[in-house]
Here is the input.
Amino acid sequence: MRVSEGLQERLMGREGRILTRSLNPGQRVYGERLHHHGDAEWREWSLQRSKPAAYLALGGDLPLRRDDRLLYLGAASGTTASHFSDILDLGTIYCVEVSPRSFRDLVTVCGRRRNMIPVMGDAGRPQDLAFAVEGATAVYQDVAQKGQASMLAENMRAFGAERGMLALKSRSEDVTAAPASILERAVAKLESEGLTVVDARMLEPYEKDHAMVVVRA
Here is the structure.
């Protein structure tokens, strides 16, 4: 695991675990273990339930800053978003989710965290999100549908984001093709959209048929 210098106060690896410094000490979001080091409480970030955690465990480095305005597309019930909330303690996370059931759980999580804003909407229609999202410095996308690379590029352009992360779901693109070939196609598409691919890797053994792609504008 690599940790950018600016995130070392909020994110760390310890004894084979990945931990984020809790923004709300004493509160669990999904039953995660809490650890205490010095005067701080740290939440254990599940490698099996969160793709960014798996990416970190495989040697990746989050392209984030503590004061980012992060557009999170496909926030579901807020599990991973809550760890981003810990890390971006000086920033804001716009948590976009289209499923009403997941959105209800997401609203509860956001209500306990000062830097998370729930937005019900379709990640594939960035023009419909503009009412709630003033702008973004970074985009994280975890959406199960075709055209994931194009969606990331479109949202980065729409909100002026400098950096992006795509949690690529291979089976949502093509159930017949090898996941590695789908990753190659996604990288090519992102580059054709004018983005620079900083890193691209599969997430096994933690996430089957998933990959992470990191880009910058």
The radius of gyration is 16 Å. The first strand starts at residue 11 and ends at 14. The chain has one domain: 47-216.
